[in-house]
# Entry
Amino acid sequence: MFHESPYRLKVETAIQAVTEAAAVVLDLYERQTANAYAKEDGSPVTDADLASDRIIRRILGERQPGVPILTEEGVDQSARLGAHRVWIADPIDGTQQFVERTGNFDVLLALVEDGRPVVGVALQPTTGRLCLAVAEFGAWVGERTETLTRISLPDQLPAVPAVGTSVWFGAPMNLGAVERIAVHLGGEIAGVSQIGLTPRIVLEPRAFDLLVGFRSDGDEISAAEWDFAVGDLFLHEAGGRLTDLAGRRLAYNKATPRVGRGFVAAIHPALHERALEAVARELPSPAAIPKPAGHRQT
# Structure
């Protein structure tokens, strides 16, 4: 049971922060009183994002003082880079879904130690579904901590894997490549997700057995560490795999907290290995990938 984990107090803190933040987000959502704004990159942010961010910061500051916090809506602090431990939060993962009133959004919070998530909590305000993952203590799902049930992904490879991508992870540019990957794996295209890597996407009824993200031009995908930390830990603890395009586990609390050029996430390790090979066929050669501004060849 995750209560026996050495991270028990961190788990309790994370659940409290996410629960209180989600309650305020739901209130603003139901009353339709949250104004929306455009950030510098053109992505939306709302009063609900900002309120959720404030609550998460307050609770973490009270219960875990001194641990740096990296959030999508907060000012990045360089002091986190030298820290052994850091909280990473997405006050609302799926702000566009909040604005469009689909209900398909979550509050995400992860604790990262030495570059890897060790506690992850996601809560969908509109349904109350709570997803929890604790390093070496499994993945859990329920509506309250008293009703959480440990889950495991299937031991057997899916006969016809459902392969997908997301508008945030390279679609529609990469759709032709994703279709060829599905064919190579004997699978079928499951569609294009409008959301990111929330833990809910691997729960029944599962939309995807394999989710891939990359841009066909080799540029970086539109994803940050706060989009991935919780889902990454949850998938691994449930028995799946998530890595970058080279098969390496993602690193967190980097100076630039971006995911990079892409990822491969699968519900089964063997499917993940096969997918890495299939994805590699579709990637541009290193020489064809645009260099960042100011890059000098050495």
